[in-house]
Amino acid sequence: MKTTSSPSILIIYTGGTIGMVENHETHALEAFDWHHLQKSVPELDQFQFRIDAITLGNPIDSADMEPKDWKRMAKAIEDNYEQYDGFVMLHGTDTMAFTASALSFMLENLQKPVIITGSQLPIGQLRTDGKENLLTSVEIAAARTEDGKPMVPEVCIFFENELMRGNRTMKLNSEGFNAFRSYNFDPLAKAGIHIEYARHNILYPEKRAEHKLFPAINNISGANTKDGLFVHYNMDNHIAILTLFPGITEEVVEGFCNVPGLRGLILQTFGSGNAPQKPWFVEKLKKIISHGIVVVNTTQCPRGSVEMGRYETSLQLLEAGVLNGYDSTLECVVAKMMFLLGHNCTPEQINLLMNTSIAGEITLK
Q: How confident is the prediction for the chain on average, in pLDDT?
């Protein structure tokens, strides 16, 4: 158990552009290691508190991330939870929002910061954004309130001067430094000359709702407990994403509905959750729902929310048994569905929890 008053931060290096170095012969970017990062950011030594680092095996390109890698990250936090006051995770940008969303559900009752960051340019390059992202993430992870509690006890993404709730964030830019955006929830902090925290947006433990179904889920998953932290490891990736488009054919929808082993289907619909008024379309959804497959409605619009029943084109989905994804990001719905299916929740439990903000992921009016 950690007893010192000075904060201690653990940096968890998973891979990504932030730790890459250019091969001078091929000019290709290759994964390097933590020692390279440490050498490139000597400013880390200026922090007046303890900073340690670990590497999760060989660096992983974020395009190769899978649920098994999320489990390794969660295990690293569990194993070190009592020894550190905050965590900074270095991660590739492509799937960073998926990882942040997954960890927000896997780390139940989290009471310490988990700040995920990375960069668009390798940290060794002159114009890199990685150095500022790393240093500010460390500072945020160590920040405390007046009564000595962690300032931001959530899973967050910090990028280009903004701290965002992890499960509210999506990648929107593959070239600019402002790679991430939280369209439906305001930032938790903005970093300028000072770091200004929007404390009314931060999900402190006392603001979190208690979910009566979690004890049952914990028994199913055999979740571990340390300092009140429950770590969930069960995730089921037998899901599919069906993006609707004008002229979508019955054969395409049929193909998605007949994926072997399918347990969950995410619909990316139009506007506020609308879909074509084709009898065959609704009937196929009714059929798979009757067979126990979970279907969730999300919008293709980055800003705004699904409003089931606002128009007849979404009312038909509601009547068929499709669940409301509200203003979730696609990344969050993917992670939440894997989480719920991984715990073998009943259809009734899934219906309730998809309509519940478990970790601040949706806005309920």
A: 89
